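Example record

The entry below shows one chain as it appears in the dataset: sequence first, then structure tokens.
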Amino acid sequence: MAHTSNKQTKVAPQRIDASTIGNEMYGLMEELFPICRSITGDGVRASLAIIKRHVPLEIHEVPSGARVFDWTVPKEWNIRGAHVKDSSGRKIIDFQDSNLHVLSYSMPIRARLSIKELKEHLYTAPEHPEWIPYRTSYYKDNWGFCLSHNQLLELAEGEYDVLIDSSLQDGHLTYGEYFLKGQTDEEVLISTHICHPSLANDNLSGVALAVFLARHLHQNSLRYSYRFLFTPGTIGSITWLSLNEHQASRIKHGLVLACVGDAGKITYKKSRRENADIDRAVIQVLKDAREPYEICGFSPYGYDERQFCSPGFNLPIGCFMRTPHGRFLEYHTSADDLRLVRPESLADSFAKCLAVLQLLEQNQTYVNRNPKCEPQLGKRGLYSHIGG
């Protein structure tokens, strides 16, 4: 591994109570879970305000319409309520019951529709008929409701009153950033996405892990500087990179944190470089743990490692997970609730991530101080004074 130094700096060892850490992380998730978040809006701000009680975030606001590479920061979306009523006035779908019920970024609407017209805007997951799916329409104007497939089957013929009390207007994209200065300007980047509504493993677990890593590292003497990003997925990391392109070269290692609270084994997706120090450090820690794990090669599908590892940046950043997105049944449905997440899994993810960072902090390469010809061993007591 690559750092060259004659002076070794270590993270000061601290006793970690895994049970306490896991329960505290779970408690933070419980507080954040009810909030309706999207890629912009007051739900993101409310979530960052809670996180800021734990780590001193700097909050950034980027205006709608700002160009960020090939993308444009979208209009800001907020929602106050939504429902569908049948002909008797009974609410059969209500945003107050679950914030997954509304297609994220739905345009405002108030209308009376036939069952046929309504069904064109309803989304279900037939393979899991009791669960509400999570669906979005960030970059194309649309509106809709998500419901269980069983609910859909119960809908009768007739007319329905539809209301989505939302706003979609010029505003801002909001993200949080915490910078922890170390002894050098070289950085470790820890990134996690905060845009999902009431979904626990994806990704309040990643948010909680980032928060508690930041809190722990704040108490230590560090060689590297650490930058923690709490951004909406895709557009958030693209925005940050666009605004901070000049300093991206300082990032020497990094992790994207997602889906770290379920009972599955640790899965690590390598950086695009495939053999960066961060890749080698994670693999070493997982080997040393002597527990099941999985290593995946890089692909341009997944979370924000796609942006950090894009060809124009190619940063040494991998993705740390337990069961990857799309490989647990509850993914992007109402079943990804707090019951899916285990405090002991959160604690295990914390311990392994911290071990990776400690390994990076302590990693050294010895420097040959006498590279010209062999050293004189006799004066160092390493060679017999009698030859022959």
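Notes for this example: Residues 343-362 form the longest helix (20 residues). The first strand starts at residue 58 and ends at 63.
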